[in-house]
Design brief:
By secondary structure, the chain is of the alpha+beta class. Helix content is 19%, strand content 30%. Helix 4 runs antiparallel to helix 5.
Length: 237
């Protein structure tokens, strides 16, 4: 599972075969067979060990533009796959809660790191003020999907390249980690394209990050494909 916009540049659609349901839309696929993932990219040691490199199947088994999420299967490998994430939860904490979560990812496409995040809540007035500021500052709305109710707002220090990073909440009751969200983007959206993430001169209250809640992904996958939902989230989710 990762952010859809990460793979969008190498996505294409393929028509369904006669054996498949004709009323369904064209099947999204990866257009490049050489897309890989390295689960052991924890230090700068290129080239990577081939035993740590995994390739993807071309078929994208789940896609949601609204949730900016895709699910892609790994091709069979001579070595066992790394253990999957198996514990998930909904984001139920409020912004006033002092607890925090942790991202594990590759900020700026660098080696694997962790980063704290804190859930935040923006009022309608906060969002309207930010939109007006963006229009005045850059002549564009840099907060176009910030009000998506299936997503979560937070503050973190991860930067571009970390999209798709899982966000973990540590349950104080059992001490276990649960995936509650996936990092998608930062606002204003033009910050990275035009300023390469340089926040100098931008007031802190106009900077916020966004992810999709695992509960939203779970509900959507389950509604479309119960078998896939069980394979990803387990039967006890």
């Amino acid at each position: 599972m990762t952010a859809r916009h990460v793979v969008e540049p190498i996505m294409r659609t393929a028509p369904f075969t006669q054996q498949q349901q004709p009323q369904l839309p064209d099947q999204p696929q990866l257009s490049d067979d050489n897309v890989i993932i390295d689960f052991c990219y924890e230090w700068n040691s290129l080239p990577s060990d081939p035993n740590h490199i995994y390739y993807f199947e071309s078929e994208i088994v789940y896609e949601s533009v609204n949730l900016d999420t895709v699910i892609i299967k790994l091709k069979p490998h001579t070595k066992a796959f790394p253990p999957p994430l198996t514990r998930f939860t909904d984001v139920t904490r409020l912004s006033q809660d002092t607890s925090h979560g942790y991202f594990i990812g590759h900020s700026q496409a660098d080696i694997k790191k962790t980063d704290k995040y804190h859930i935040v809540t923006l009022t309608k007035s906060d969002i309207d003020t930010a939109k007006k500021w963006s229009l005045d500052f850059e002549k564009v709305d840099g907060y176009d999907v910030i009000e998506n109710q299936q997503r979560v707002l937070f503050h973190c220090s991860f930067e571009q390249g970390a999209s798709g990073s899982p966000g973990f909440w540590i349950n104080p009751g059992d001490g276990q980690s649960y995936v509650e969200l996936m990092l998608l983007c930062g606002y204003p959206k033009w910050l990275y394209n035009k300023y390469q993430g340089n926040t100098r001169g931008i007031p802190n209250h106009f900077l916020v990050e966004q992810g999709v809640s695992m509960k939203s992904v779970y509900d959507d996958v389950k509604a479309r494909d119960a078998l896939l939902c069980n394979a990803v989230f387990g039967t006890k989710s």
